[in-house]
Amino acid sequence: MKSKTLLKNEDAVSITLGFILILFITVLIFSGIILSFYTLTKHSQETAMKESFDILGSGFAARVASMDTLVNITKSNGGTVNQLEYDFSIPASIANEGYGINVTKERILLESENGNAKAWIPFNSSSNITGQIYSNAQDYKLSYDNNNNSMKIEQ
Amino acid sequence: MGIIKNDDAQFMLLAGFIIGIGLVITTIMLNNIIFESNMAGEAGGDPIKYDIVNLMRISGDEMKSAYRNVTAPGQDANLKFINFTSQMQNFSGNLSKIYALHGEGVNVGWNISNWNNNNYANFTDNGTANGAANWTVMENVKNSTITVNISWIDTTSPFRINISSATKYWYINFTYTGTPTTITNDQIKNNITSAYSIAFINGSSASGNYSIAGNTTYGRNFTRARDYILNATVTLSTSKMRTNITIPVSVPW
After folding, report:
1. Is A9 part of any domain?
2. Which terminal Cβ of chain A has fewer Cβ within 10 Å, N or C?
3. Number of domains in chain A
4. Helix axes of B48-71 and A15-76: crossing angle, nearest 10 degrees
């Protein structure tokens, strides 16, 4: 009987204070949700860039490996590679960021403009290959030069 | 006052919870959508190289076949070039149609000037001067007859045929040109027991043609022979790549 009276007792209840408290808590919760959403978005962008760099770099490495294989098969048969060219395109931006691709004989390094996302793709080419390309131009040509036993990347 | 005093707010609380859970779900879904939309679209390997290697192989095989057909006993020697060209043209035309069906432009060319001018090849593995000079022609041989005809030789490092078994070793040096040399099965058997392997040493120091016929310890007959080195040029082009490769083809085998 006493507890029922305690539960029904509303002497210390202030509607104004309750409203202010609830408003404050609501604002806090919503701010938290919005902030966490923003952080998640940023995190997703970086993860997406890294994933995309890996995919892009692996595709490029596959083409270089193909050319290398063809050149070596031809040479082992005593043949000559008169022409070997691959056209490839790269996206203008990945997750709204420009990026650069640096290629050497041993690895491909992809790096975003702001430097937040990087990806290394190791590979081993028997032909010399060196090049630096940027995403501001999308269409490139990978070609083999039989005279110098090297591969070139041209726009 | 009635509204203020009304504390029957279970439905409001329930609605609050539902909105809260909905917000969490929406946040997670949006996050996934943004992640997916940022992914790169294109990736994968490069299957075209298998087409090119296949093209090189079948073009070489067809040239060997065409050469064997036109030089077979009973064929008119005066028509050998015409017949060879005819078979290769037929092959090239059909091949272009087949490759065109899956989006690849293909052309096969051939150069028979070595055959036409009797320019013999080196005794290297692929017949070119830069090919491997020391190489094994055949292994696990039981019986064989070797015929070698040398058109040019550098006597400072003479061309040699090594015949070796697991325990014994025999070789023939070649120092003269012009006369075909035949090493019979009996000659080999007098010097070495089967199974043996046949290897060419200093193959870049001589040119000419050879023929080795016999059988192996597994009971299978074999022929290894080279009259000339012809050149096949294969071109393949797709929307993404272009290639033009010349390979030497040893004929007849």
Report:
1. no
2. N
3. 1
4. 20
